[in-house]
Amino acid sequence: MLADEASPGLAIVILAVFLAFRYLLYPTLLSPLARIPNAHWSSPISRLWILGIRYTHRENRILHALHRSLGPVIRVGPNELSINGIDGVRTVYQGGFEKPDWYSVFDNYGVPCMFSTRPAAEHSARKRSISNIYSKSYIQSSQSASAQGREILYGRLLPKLLDSTSKMQVPHGIDMYSVFMATTMDFISAYIFGIENGTNLLHDEALRDHLLEHYKARSDYSVFDQELPRLTWLCRKIGIPFWTVDAANKELGEWCMRLCDVTKKASIMNNPSATEACDEPVVWNALVGGLAKETKTSGSSSVLYPTALTNVDLSVASELFDHVLAGQETVGITLSYISWRLSQSMDLQADLRAELLSLAPNMRLDRDESASMPDPKQLDALPLLHAVVMETLRLHAPIPGYQPRETPELPCQIGPYLVPGGVRIAASAYSLHRDEKVFPEPEVWNPTRWLSSDGDGEERKKRNRQFWAFSSGGRMCVGSNFAMHEMKLIIAAIYSNFTSHIVDDAGMSEQSDGYTGRPVHERLFLRFERVV
Ligand code: HEM
């Protein structure tokens, strides 16, 4: 009888002791992570603090400040670390640590794309078919990329800037954030689908505004779906949908699916040898061809069989949807910051223009407003243009935030600490790009730090090693060469022909803090003057 009465109390005591050990004592004092400095006193026992600063868009700045005082490895949650410094980055990102489930939110239409794929073997198989068409040598020699660039720059962008110089427009200027978002979507969609089937957002302002609204709605998407997937799933199940986000995703998804369908139909009807260079859907062709080859060579034994080969149309659409999203906003943000920074110095614009006009042929418009495309290799080798782009990507990285990976099953050494498997670990371009030992006066935008005359060879090597705007290792940005080529081309076309002047730059100096970093008001009004 006595034993019966005591047992519930005893069970509660045992449970309390177990819970105290499991959730307080072990993570705080006994876990292998207990030796690592805590970002916050609650970090070993709860994710609340890190989720709070992530949700309120303060993570990059706060963790950067904490790394400065606590060192290159800090514990931000019970099972989550933040690292800073090139050694840790090499171990994690060049070491092939896999992505965690955090990235599954980037599956589109319910199927994975290369960006969201977690297992390394599956990721490599996806990358095989497209890495060639995104390589520097391919892009620089592609007739299609050149023809598409010509049409977008001379047929759409420069006429728009010329219009903006008319007397009627003065003094309001033109919203270059919106214009750059249109230009970059036109560029990436032309390379993916061909110019005929891609977008023309430079002309279609209504569609541009509509799509940009949807982009905006997605900006908080990540925090709930990525950090609290079960809670988010439950909310949806019981009828509490994330209306704006779900609707925005659905509509963007349907829009991209239409582009894929039109391209597929055109590829069936057209004779490829009769297709104009600018109409070649370079990425679509490579992807569809790659999946067909994989089916032929490996069939049902391929790692891609269950997710892609049995579902080719959706798999292609998922991949391409990711490219239009990844390839537009990042480049658009960077171009906005480049033109904002250049608009603050007429001397720098004059130096840049002198360099651009040294190209043979250069991009100066003739009397009849036509012009040539430059030699891509010459363009790439211009030192000041390169320095301006690199410095902008350093200080205003469009993906400044934490890029999570997971430690492998066997314990690994991160700095002085032995870290067990299954721990989320991440570095950020925001912190790496603000290391004053490598980038003196890190908050100052100073392109000369990238010029060869500045500093000795060792210093330059250090800067290049620490540059992380495109990440590093096997999961680094596949579009980095496309982005660099596109940005240089667009800046060269504009500044060979115009000077730019700030009309309204409110919000440009505050870049949002998160995985993606946008100018807070997402607008930049500039006035252009034709160079005579
Ligand atoms: C300035 C422009 C760009 C920047 C700064 C940038 C940055 C990045 C970064 C940091 C990552 C790694 C993210 C992570 O692991 O969490 C990434 C991946 C990726 N980016 Fe970019 N990107 C840019 C332009 C582009 C363009 C034009 C494309 C067009 C295809 C693109 C497509 C991708 C893809 C597909 C991945 C996933 C790669 C993989 O998982 O193997 N990006 N990008």
UniProtKB/TrEMBL annotation:
Database matches in InterPro entries: Cyt_P450 (IPR001128), Cyt_P450_CS (IPR017972), Cyt_P450_E_grp-IV (IPR002403), Cyt_P450_sf (IPR036396), Cytochrome_P450_monoxygenase (IPR050121)
Keyword Oxidoreductase recorded: yes
Co-factor requirement: heme
Keywords tagged on the record: Heme, Iron, Membrane, Metal-binding, Monooxygenase, Oxidoreductase, Transmembrane, Transmembrane helix
Binding of heme, residues: 477
Record-annotated membrane-spanning stretches: 6-25
Family statement: Belongs to the cytochrome P450 family.
Name of this protein: Cytochrome P450
Record organism: Podospora appendiculata
